[in-house]
Design a protein that fits this description.
Elements lengths: L6 H25 L2 E5 L6 H9 L4 E6 L3 H11 L6 E2 L2 H7 L4 E4 L6 H8 L5 E5 L6 H14 L3 E4 L6 H11 L7 E9 L10 H7 L9 H4 L1 H11 L7 E7 L12 E7 L4 E7 L6 E8 L2 E5 L5 E5 L6 E2 L10 H9 L12 H20 L3 E2 L4
C-alpha cells in the first residue's frame, strides 16, 4: 500500500513547484529578445506578431502613425494599448529594446537607422536593405559610426536546403568551381495572392518600394548569389523588366530577368509576379555536379557519374529563423561578415538591383565598379 503524503509536504510541495516553474520561466524570459517594431503596413509583420503571441519574443513597443491600422491590429492580435507609439523617437524615449525590427516601406528603412544608430540600437530590416545605393551607403556609414548591427531578413535565409548547398560546395567540395546559378522567385502577384491594401499601397509604388518584381523578388537571387560568390560583386549586370499586367500594376514592373556576370560564372535571376504558383528555388551548376533546392527542404543532385537525379538529406539549421540568428549576433555568439543577412552582402544586393533597373531602362549592360 502506498504511504499517505506527509501533511506538511501537501502544503509545501505546490509552493515549491510554483517557485521552480517561476524560476525557469524567469530564466526563459530573460533570454528572450526585447524588440521594437516599426510599421504595421508590411504583411511580413504577422510573423513577428505570431512569435509574440507564442511567447518567443518580447515586443516592448510598436511605432505606427496610422491609427486605423493600429486599431485593427490591436483587435486582431489582442495587443495592449501600452506598447503603441506614434513614432520611433517617442517609443525609444520610453523603452530601450535589444533591437528594432523594421516593417515599413523599403525607402523608409533609412529613417529607422537614422534614429537607432546614434542610440546604439541594432536594426534588422525586411528585404531588401534599401531602394538606392546612396541610401544603402548612408545607412552603412551610420551603422558603423554607431557600432550597431544592421541586418536584412530574407525568408530564403532560413531554408535548410540553401544552407546545405553552401556546405556541399565549400565544406565537402562536391562540385568544384561554380559555373552557373539560377534563382526563380515570385508568385502570381501580390494582389492576386491577397496581400493587404496597406501593404499594396507602397509595395506597388516605384519610390517607396523602388520598383515592382525586380525589387520584391530580384533581391532574393542577388542575395543568394552574392553569398555563393563569397561576397564578391559581379562584373556586370544586364536586365529586362516587363509590365505584363499594367491594369493591375500601372506604376511598376511585374516581371524581371537579371543576368549577373562573374569572372568564371554567371547568374540568372528570374523574378516575377506572373508565376502560376509561388516559387523560391535555387539551382547551382558546377564542374562536377548540379544541385537544385526545389524549396526550403527538398534538395536534389545530379553529377557527372549518373544521369539520375537523387535526393540529398538536408540537415536542420543551427539558427532556424531571424529571431534565433539575431539573438546570437547580439550576444556575440555569432559574427555576421558575409552571410545572407550581413550588411556587406546586402550593400552588394542593392548595387545589383540598382544596376538592373538602369540596364532595363537604358537597354544595355551595366558595368559595376570594383568593390
Amino acid at each position: 500500500m502506498t504511504k499517505p503524503l506527509n501533511p506538511s509536504l501537501k502544503f509545501f510541495l505546490p509552493l515549491v513547484l510554483t517557485f521552480v516553474l517561476f524560476f525557469f520561466v524567469s530564466i526563459a524570459s530573460a533570454q528572450l529578445l526585447r524588440v521594437a517594431v516599426v510599421g504595421l503596413n508590411h504583411d511580413h509583420v504577422h510573423g513577428i506578431l505570431n512569435d509574440y503571441k507564442q511567447g518567443r519574443v518580447i515586443i516592448v513597443g510598436i511605432s505606427e502613425a496610422d491609427q486605423d491600422l493600429v486599431q485593427r491590429y490591436k483587435k486582431r492580435d489582442n495587443l495592449p494599448d501600452s506598447i503603441f507609439y506614434k513614432d520611433l523617437p517617442s517609443l525609444l524615449a520610453h523603452v530601450k529594446p535589444d533591437a528594432v525590427l523594421a516593417f515599413n516601406p523599403i525607402a523608409e528603412h533609412i529613417k529607422v537607422v537614422e534614429v537607432c544608430a546614434p542610440k546604439g540600437i541594432s536594426v534588422m530590416v525586411e528585404k531588401p536593405l534599401a531602394t538606392t545605393v546612396a541610401d544603402a551607403e548612408k545607412m552603412a556609414a551610420m551603422a558603423r559610426k554607431g557600432k550597431i548591427q544592421l541586418l536584412t531578413n530574407y525568408e530564403t535565409t532560413w531554408y535548410p536546403s540553401n544552407q546545405e548547398i553552401y556546405d556541399l560546395i565549400y565544406s565537402q567540395n562536391i562540385m568544384g568551381d561554380i559555373r552557373k546559378m539560377v534563382v526563380h522567385s515570385g508568385h502570381q502577384g501580390p494582389r492576386e495572392i491577397g496581400c493587404s491594401e496597406d501593404f499594396l499601397k507602397w509595395l506597388t509604388d516605384p519610390v517607396l518600394d523602388g520598383g515592382g518584381a525586380v525589387m520584391d523578388f530580384g533581391c532574393y537571387g542577388a542575395n543568394l548569389m552574392t553569398w555563393l560568390m563569397k561576397g564578391k560583386a559581379p562584373i556586370s549586370v544586364t536586365a529586362i523588366t516587363k509590365q505584363i499586367k499594367p491594369n493591375i500594376y500601372p506604376k511598376v514592373d511585374d516581371y524581371a530577368t537579371i543576368m549577373v556576370e562573374y569572372p568564371n560564372a554567371t547568374g540568372v535571376i528570374e523574378a516575377s509576379w506572373n508565376w502560376p504558383y509561388g516559387i523560391k528555388d535555387l539551382e547551382v551548376f558546377g564542374v562536377k555536379s548540379y544541385l537544385h533546392a526545389l524549396n526550403g527542404n527538398v534538395l536534389e543532385e545530379r553529377n557527372t557519374d549518373t544521369a539520375v537525379f537523387f535526393k540529398i538529406p538536408v540537415k536542420p539549421l543551427i539558427y532556424k529563423d531571424n529571431l534565433a540568428y539575431l539573438a546570437a549576433v547580439l550576444r556575440g555568439e555569432y559574427h555576421s561578415v558575409d552571410d545572407l543577412s550581413s550588411l556587406e552582402n546586402n550593400l552588394t544586393v542593392v548595387r545589383i538591383l540598382e544596376a538592373a533597373k538602369q540596364s532595363a531602362k537604358e537597354g544595355r549592360k551595366i558595368m559595376l565598379a570594383k568593390n
